[in-house]
């Protein structure tokens, strides 16, 4: 036991030295974006539980596959606290899961986002100063998941092509 106690300061010193070296090392531009903070894309639908969840889940998969430094979240205007089982099941069949539990859009969410995409009109007190892109003609996913997905995917590609660095 004494030997272990004697080694503890040496191990701790080595850990501190390693941490200091890691902090002082530079990040190269050609390395993956793992060391860079991710920017947020906010998808908004009426309840934060259907179309915004579908869009955020697909966006996140594509962003991860392509190594993008963006992450999508889902928000609602008049939040429904649960995601319908039909949506959860369809996402699971695609190997996806919801981006986050349903949550209400705040002006802070909108103002801090790199982009805000809404399926329904967003009240001014919730959108803050953010510019909103509307996708009003997307079918409602609870009625027809595949039709909603098929309308959302090409639009996600369009968003991605307009992101900085793409």
Question: In terms of topology, how is this protein built?
Answer:
Blueprint lengths: L1 H23 L14 E7 L5 H16 L3 E7 L8 H9 L13 H6 L2 E4 L5 H4 L4 E3 L10 H18 L4
Parallel strand pairs: 1-2, 1-3, 3-4
Helix pairs in contact: 2-6
Tell me about this structure.
The chain is an alpha/beta fold and about 170 residues long. It has one domain: 3-Layer(aba) Sandwich (Rossmann fold), CATH 3.40.50. The chain is built from six helices and four strands. The chain has a four-stranded parallel β-sheet with strand order 2-1-3-4. Helix 2 crosses helix 6. The chain is globular. The N and C termini lie far apart (about 55 Å). About 30% of the residues are buried. The N terminus is likely disordered.
Short overview:
The chain has 166 residues and is α/β, with parallel strands linked by helices.
* Morphology: globular
- The number of strands is 4
Rg estimate, integer Å:
21 Å
CATH topology annotation: Rossmann fold
Name of the top-level CATH class:
Alpha Beta
Largest sheet: 4 strands, parallel
**Number of helical runs?**
6
- Percent of residues in helices comes to 40-55%
The strand order across the widest sheet is 2-1-3-4
The CATH architecture designation is: 3-Layer(aba) Sandwich
Total count of domains: 1
Distance between the termini: 56 Å
Q: Which residues sit in consecutive blocks of at least 5 with pLDDT less than 50?
A: 1-35
| Structural class assignment | alpha/beta
Q: Which percent range describes the beta-strand content?
A: 5-15%
